[in-house]
Specification:
Blueprint (H helix, E strand, L loop, with lengths): L1 E2 L6 H16 L4 E2 L2 H16 L7 H4 L1 H6 L9
């Protein structure tokens, strides 16, 4: 896993771009913000405690799910 933060200087931008390309090429996760790094470490720690269980967002907000309708229309 790599964390990449740039200061905004031209050389930093070029280096950051190259690091992101290498990470993608070698399938290495890359995190570009401190908030993302914190979220990732929290998720990894949670995974070590046991299996994760997915919960649909609608389970947290059932009233919104009942109001929401989606219609698909094929045009052409």
């Amino acid at each position: 896993m790599a964390r990449c933060v740039v200061a905004g200087k031209e050389v930093d931008v070029i280096d950051g771009k190259n690091l992101r390309r290498l990470a993608l090429a070698y399938k290495v996760p890359i995190i570009t913000t401190v908030a993302g790094a914190k979220a990732t470490t929290s998720a990894l720690a949670g995974m070590q405690k046991g299996p994760l269980h997915q919960v649909p967002l609608q389970d947290y907000f059932p009233e919104a799910a009942e109001r929401s309708t989606v219609e698909f229309k094929i045009v052409g």
